[in-house]
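// run 5 | inverse folding | seed 20
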């Protein structure tokens, strides 16, 4: 009976109807991509050298959000960290994103923009009120990304606030939300260790070919955060070019090599979460969203880095993702697999019958 069961299992595997058991995968840090929802159709007229394949969209376009999530999931991205501070437009767009994320089993976290357009810190009272709104309303959503059971938020610009002001902002919400700072060095992480839950370093402009301290800095920051029992969100990017928005630095993508090098350095820092900079920061050219200039190169590279099979081209409409593909031969491939399996089983049974017959004849001879 055991031999018959083994033969049957092997027949099913050979027919493609029963997969071989996969080896246990090593746990890996979840991957979240920074996501920007400030786009109006007019936004694309300022300081852009590349444009989305989807066209010059508005962040209010639900079909665009739906497609973004489908593409991100296909490349092994687990969620978006959406840039937000409370106003009518941002709140409406955050609601749209959360709704689509729920529909596609995707995650959303929030990075609170604590600095204004001129890089000046917002009033502490306003920031504290916005974090309470996050705690009481948005963070309750089932699509909100959680780390150890608590919704994840990031406070951008913490280096511009005193430790006391950060404590006034985070103190009332940390029992129900995780709040990471965005300090830029180990000293900053130590400064805020008691008033935040860790650090999400936003470093998109590093050139791994010229900065030989890149990997060491990430590792030291991670060790500093973990020593204080905090969470470490490690950054990586596909490239960078902010010269059209007043910057002077440019980091070439180099055919995906920059993304691979920065991903490896981020993973080597033992992150709790990986922070991809970015999904759609087109002004600084750190985007991985399929674009006119770079196509799907970054997403294809991410699939390889995350150990995923090649996916359909992002030009496919979002409804096609997750749906069964229509094969040109209709039902014939499935029927042929069934027939093949049947033939193998029949052969296996016949083989067992012959084996039993041989045993019977041998017993009679003895």
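// decoded
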């Amino acid at each position: 009976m055991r031999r018959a069961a083994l033969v049957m299992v092997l027949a099913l595997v050979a027919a493609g109807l029963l997969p071989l058991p996969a080896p246990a995968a090593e746990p890996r840090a979840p991957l979240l991509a920074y996501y920007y929802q400030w786009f109006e159709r007019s936004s694309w007229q300022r300081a852009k050298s590349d444009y989305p394949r989807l066209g010059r969209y508005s962040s209010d376009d639900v079909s665009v959000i739906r497609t973004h999530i489908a593409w991100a999931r296909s490349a092994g991205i687990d969620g978006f960290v959406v840039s937000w501070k409370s106003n009518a437009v941002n709140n409406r767009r955050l609601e749209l994103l959360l709704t689509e994320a729920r529909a596609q089993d995707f995650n959303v976290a929030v990075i609170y923009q604590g600095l204004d357009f001129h890089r000046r810190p917002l009033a502490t009272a306003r920031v504290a009120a916005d974090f309470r709104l996050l705690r009481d309303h948005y963070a309750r959503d089932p699509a909100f990304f959680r780390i150890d059971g608590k919704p994840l938020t990031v406070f951008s610009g913490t280096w511009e606030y005193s430790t006391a002001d950060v404590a006034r902002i985070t103190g009332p919400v940390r029992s129900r939300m995780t709040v990471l700072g965005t300090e830029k060095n180990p000293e900053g992480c130590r400064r805020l260790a008691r008033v935040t839950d860790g650090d999400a370093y936003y470093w998109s402009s590093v050139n791994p070919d010229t900065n030989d301290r890149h990997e060491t800095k990430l590792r030291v920051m991670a060790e500093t955060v973990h020593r204080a029992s905090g969470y470490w969100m490690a950054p990586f990017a596909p490239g960078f070019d902010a010269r059209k928005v007043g910057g002077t630095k440019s980091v070439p993508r180099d055919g995906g090599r920059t993304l691979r090098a920065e991903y490896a350095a981020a993973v080597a820092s033992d992150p709790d979460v990986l922070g991809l900079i970015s999904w759609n920061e087109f002004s600084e050219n750190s985007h991985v969203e399929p674009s006119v200039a770079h196509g799907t190169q970054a997403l294809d590279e991410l699939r390889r880095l995350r150990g995923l099979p090649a996916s359909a081209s992002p030009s496919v409409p979002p409804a096609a993702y997750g749906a069964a593909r229509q094969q040109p031969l209709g039902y014939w491939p499935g029927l042929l697999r069934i027939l093949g399996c049947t033939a193998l089983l029949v052969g296996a049974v016949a083989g067992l019958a012959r084996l039993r017959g041989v045993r019977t004849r041998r017993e009679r001879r003895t």
